[in-house]
Design goal:
4-stranded mixed beta sheet; 70 residues; Prok_Ub; PRTRC system protein C; single chain; PRTRC_protein-C; globular; alpha+beta
Length: 70
């Protein structure tokens, strides 16, 4: 019998807690954004497979709002 795939969510090298069955978008929007406001505009990358785990990574958008290029 094949073991079910697990899901893991990472941001900046830190594993984020997530309820079982949550989608990557739900984790990003509902959980992570409460602790990491910069994730509101983050990209979801993945999954990459590590053993029996699907790893999703939240990556901040490039650039910083309000910074001038002078």
């Amino acid at each position: 019998m094949q073991e079910a795939m697990q899901m893991k969510f990472m941001y900046n090298g830190v594993e984020l807690p997530a309820p079982e069955g949550a989608t990557p978008a739900q984790v990003k929007d509902d959980l992570a954004a409460a602790f990491y406001p910069e994730l509101n505009t983050a990209e979801i990358r993945g999954p990459r497979i590590e053993g029996n785990t699907m790893v999703y990574e939240f990556v901040r958008a490039a650039g910083t709002k309000g910074k001038g290029g002078h």
